[in-house]
Amino acid sequence: MATDEKLAKLRRVPLFARLGKRELERLGMLTDEVDLPAGRVLMRQGDPGEELFVLMRGAARVERDGRLVAERLADEFVGEIALVDGGPRTATVTLTEDSELLVVGRRQFQQLLDEFPDVRLQVLEALAQRVRLAESDGVH
After folding, report:
1. I need a surface site. Which of 12, 48, 52, 139 has the fewest CB within 10 A?
2. What fold does the segment set 3-124 form as a domain?
3. Helix, strand, coil abundance in the chain, percent, nearest 5
4. What distance in Å separates the CA atoms of residue 50 and residue 30, rounded to the nearest whole number?
């Protein structure tokens, strides 16, 4: 993927949409691109979390305790909770389609947050939004 194409894809991701050009370019340098087949397990609940995945193309199923809790599509991300708090994975995520992903490792993710405090705020806002959605789903 060409650098300009990669940056354009990153900008589509709501988590990164408000980043400035400099921050986005830095994020692009810190990410790896991978293509993975449907059926591939990205993470298992309870395992240590060492990376954040951004789905550029494809889809994934998110399960907690064997129950479907969410589906993630292109321009969405998974794996952020374990990166933020250093704890184990809170869910198992399996690709349901052949997928193109960008991967940010824990060290690179922390480096990005340290370099760009605005990114830290955006990650916290995204986490808060997911918590609100999870709580509202549990109320019904």
Report:
1. 139
2. Jelly Rolls (2.60.120)
3. 40, 30, 25
4. 14
**Among 45, 30, 29, 24, which residue's Cα sits nearest to residue 110?**
30
Alpha helix locations (H) across the chain?
A: 3-12, 21-30, 80-85, 106-115, 117-139
pLDDT in tens, the chain (140 residues): 567 888 888 888 877 877 888 888 888 888 899 999 999 999 999 999 989 899 999 999 999 999 999 999 998 889 888 877 888 999 999 999 999 999 988 888 888 888 878 777 877 887 788 777 777 665 43
With 0-12 / 13-18 / 19 or more C-beta atoms within 10 angstroms meaning exposed / middle / buried, residue 79 is buried
